[in-house]
Amino acid sequence: MLNIIQPKMQLAVCSDCHKLHNVKNIVEYKEKGKPAIASCQHEEFPNNSVSSHRNKCNNPLSTLKKRKDGTIAIPRMLYPKPSIRQQLSMLYQRPDFEDMLKLSGIQREEVNIYSDIYDGKVWKTFPFDGNTFFTPETATAHLGLLFNLDWFQPFTYTQHSAGAIYASICNLPRSERNKPENIVYLGFLPGPKEVGLERINHYLAPIVDELLELWRGWRVPKTYQCPDGLDLKVALIIGSSDIPATRKLFGHGSAVMKCHRCEKRSTYSHEYKKTHYGGMEEYDEWITRPADALLHRQYAQEWIQCSSKSTRDNHFKEHGVRWTELLRLPYLDPIRFAVVDPMHCLFLGVAKWIIKSIFVNQGKLSMDQLRIAQKRMNQIELPSDIGHIPPKIAIRESSFSNLTADQWKTFIMVYSTTILWDMLDDNDRKILGHFVRACNLLVTRFITEDDLKEAQERLKDMACIIENEYGPEFITSNIHLALHIPDCCRDYGPVYSFWLFPFERLNGYIGKIFEVSFSIVTALPILSFLFFFKKKRLLFRIISQ
Ligand SMILES: [Zn+2]
Ligand SMILES: [Zn+2]
User: Which ligand has the minimum distance to the alpha carbon of residue 43?
Assistant: First the structure.
């Protein structure tokens, strides 16, 4: 059963700037004693000394409808905000829930192995009141959330992106954490386009308001084990989304500017007309200098206080930071919490880049060779417990088209060296060999400090050979970011604790729900959210398929 329930909080959305408003204020708005249309008072630059330069929105928020008993104002767009407290309250009614949370508090031996998020630095050292937040005593009452934002296309034939933000409770055992019934829905971003950070901020604001209250403390009125209630505290401890979404949520500029984890800036290549992260000779300098979280907060504050678009744009060009509502959470570290998702980075990023953009596009692997490789692949029988469908790497004239992250993972980790080795020259073998070894070290349920060190060295050696052999322009943002994955593991444990593979399945469910609701109510996407909430029976049917 999905834990989506009738939202308690209804907000009205401005259809222009996406600012959320209290429905009551709009419905009760009057001019000269009569119901009237309220307009959006949001100002983009409230600090501008000239009022006409503050960019007031003024978009109408309601329409007037005549009824028998008089005229009423009806909000033009509604936004149902899922209540985190209500969802938590429901989870705590379940007989097994608190016992599962307790497992996160089991004292763990200090061995040199990361086996789960609890072995990572963030869980072990999250500060609270002169102590640490996560302790055996607080295992059922202090919750740590991993949150994810994903965009999906609910319609097959049109460009419409809707977003969902949800969280998994890290205190739950790994096998339970990402089950749909254990997920907490934080909010949705209506389409039709992927909204920019300034607009996402409007949707983040009510989520952050509730998270702040939950950080200060809230008492669940009744739990299965505590009929008199239980005092809870909740903290977001990690944000794992695809890389553009992570940057947006934490207020970082895009990869075109700089790395969001360290001080490395990108370089523009006039020849290739794109930016790159070449310059591996400076590796030691930036790998040891993570970006400064306090400085990030300071730049974000300055950015929001800029009084015009041009000053904001200039400030952004210099520092690559924008304000994000998440920064209102006092404990949030906008660098550390913004992890590099290994699924996107390693498989959709680096694996695809090495094979397609380097080996194939640079003429190292021909279509004829790929056809031979495909034949070899088809002959390899995998043990049934792997259960992967072999990826199609040569289909007529196209190579490696539309492989999913999971197929790239299988191709790289299971097949690539066996089937391509004799087709590659020495340096390309080294590139592939280092990468495959690094993936095999990183993609494991238990990882040691020695494994992390070796993975780091392998990724570095791979990047150096690519740079020497093909040029600095071939060092992509993903190759650079992969070098930060070992540090993410030190903070959060093995990649299984924070990569996005389990969320992919969840997105599949939510995408389906949207598809159905959108085909019923197509004109006003926001109304479909209401549908979404009311169509529980339909929801179960889709999910049980
Ligand atoms: Zn507005
Ligand atoms: Zn970096």
Answer: 1
Q: What confidence tier does 283 reach under pLDDT thresholds 50, 70, 90? A: very high
- The tokens for 422 are 């004799």
User: Are the beta carbons of 265 and 258 closer than 8 angstroms?
Assistant: yes
The residues near 484 (Cβ < 8 Å, ≥ 6 apart) are: 259, 261, 262, 340
Ligand nearest to the CA of 483: 2
Closest CA to 232 of 98, 426, 408, 387: 98
pLDDT digits (tens, 9 = 90+) for 454-480: 999 999 999 999 999 999 999 999 999
Ligand 2: centre distance to CA 115 (Å): 25
Torsion of CA 212, 216, 222, 225, to 10 degrees: 110
Measured in Å, residue 201 CA sits from the centre of ligand 2 at 25
CA of 514 to the centre of ligand 1 (A): 25
Structure tokens at 500: 């996005």
Q: Is the pLDDT of residue 123 over 90?
A: yes
Report which residue type is found at 446.
Answer: F
E-strand ranges in 58-116 read 62-67, 70-75, 78-81, 113-114
Residues with CB under 5 A from ligand 2 (ion): 259, 261-262, 264
Question: For 434-453, what is each residue's pLDDT tens digit?
Answer: 999 999 999 999 999 999 99
What does the pLDDT look like over 179-229, one tens digit per residue? Answer: 888 989 888 777 666 667 778 899 999 999 999 999 999 999 999 999 999
- Collect residues with CB below 5 Å from ion ligand 1: 14, 16-17, 19, 40, 42, 57, 59
| Residue listed under structure tokens 């950015």 | 303
| Ligand closest to the CA atom of residue 19 | 1
Q: How far apart are CA 539 and CA 185, in angstroms?
A: 15
Chain centre to alpha carbon of residue 243? 7
- CA pseudo-torsion sign 508, 512, 517, 523: positive
Q: Which ligand lies nearest to the CA atom of residue 61 in the structure?
A: 1
Q: Tally Cβ neighbours within 10 Å of residue 106.
A: 9
Cα(491)–Cα(501) distance, integer angstroms: 19
Beta-carbon contacts of 513 under 8 Å, excluding residues fewer than 6 positions away, are 532, 535, 538, 539, 542
Q: Which residue has the tokens 């204020």?
A: 25
Ligand found nearest the CA of 283: 2
CA 124 / ligand 1 centre spacing (Å): 43
* Residue count of the chain: 545
- Euclidean distance between CA atoms 91 and 98, whole angstroms: 9
* Rounded (5°) CA angle 200-203-206: 140
Q: What is the pTM of this model?
A: 0.90
Q: How far is the CA of 411 from the centre of ligand 2 (A)?
A: 27
Quote helix, strand, coil % in the chain, to nearest 5.
45, 15, 35
